[in-house]
Amino acid sequence: MKTNVMYILLTTIVMSLIWMIAGGVFMGMVGAIDTTDIDPLESLLSSGSLVLVSFLNVLVVAWFVNRTHLTGFGLGFRVFFLLFGVMFFMTQMETLLFNSAIKMPVEVVGATVASGALATLSVAILAVIYRRKLGPPARWDRWVDPSRNVTKLLILAVIYMILYFVVGYYTAWQVPELRAFYSGSTDMLPFGAHMVDVLRGDIALPVFQITRGLMWAGLGYAAIVGLGNAKAWERFILVGLILSVGLATPLLVPNEYMPPVVRGGHFFELLAENFVFGLLVALFFRPRARG
């Protein structure tokens, strides 16, 4: 218990500090911040939110490390792959897609990804040390059948695309300010008419979301095959949390590109959408006994 608490506290502090310092350095390098024009109250709120985001994600990582059969470099790489992939790579893909509304300079996107890479790398390194202190994990006597994985991944990619549109419409799109932010109007069409309007505006969007769904399914698969010592119910919950917490929680950090009400609308959308998708990934890729 003491080891778990110490790891969570230490890793939260380290991740937060590296994220803040690296973010400041990289943002300064691309000219995105002016140190002479900083609001102390806004900086305090932003720092507190960032620490909270780090804490919530470290909690998920700690649970993963306690249930994995991986050690050493394999564990470190898996933690980095999952955390960076969810928190920064997948999120900034979406930023670039809708950047006509968000208006975040590409240099800022790059600085965000770079600072995130350093922050998540620190979590991965500490995860390896943490696993050593917990002692050697039990040997995994189960496996994930690879024979039909490609078909399953494709099915999941289509399911993700459906979830993206359905959950997005019935959660985030219900917020008038969010509709105005992206479309310039608070008008709301019925779901069917809304989808026709969306596809007329960007017919490539479903293909893009299927591609992202394939990536999300791949991240979920990587989590499952790393959870050799998890109970069945833990695999479901953990994969759901791994795919959703890192995606939604960065929206808790204030930024100048997305108003609070828009971030709030997306927070519940992404948390629900990706948690449900994570449960489905765990259902599709249930480990079986060897032999």
Protein architecture, described:
The protein has one domain (2-289). 75% of the residues lie in helices and 1% in strands. The model has no long low-confidence stretch (mean pLDDT 89). With 291 residues, it is mainly alpha-helical. Helix 2 (40-67) packs antiparallel against helix 10 (232-248). The chain is built from eleven helices and two strands.
Helix content range of the residues, please?
A: over 70%
Name the shape in a single word: globular
| Strand-residue proportion | under 5%
- Tally of domains: 1
Q: SS-based structural class?
A: mainly alpha
**SSE string, helices as H and strands as E:** HHHHHEHHHHHHE
- What does the average pLDDT come to? 89
What is the count of DSSP helices, taking H or I runs of 4+ residues?
11
Radius of gyration over C-alpha positions, nearest whole angstrom: 20 Å
Write out the strand line-up for the largest beta sheet, numbering strands in chain order: 1-2
Largest β-sheet summary: 2 strands, antiparallel
Name the poorly predicted regions.
none
Q: Please give the number of β-strands.
A: 2
Distance between the termini: 36 Å
Question: What is the compact description of this entry?
Answer:
The protein is mostly helical. The chain contains 11 helices and 2 strands, in the order αααααβααααααβ.
Which helices and strands occur, and which strands form pairs?
Layout: H1 2-29, H2 40-67, H3 72-97, H4 99-102, H5 106-134, E1 142-143, H6 149-170, H7 176-183, H8 191-201, H9 205-224, H10 232-248, H11 260-284, E2 288-289
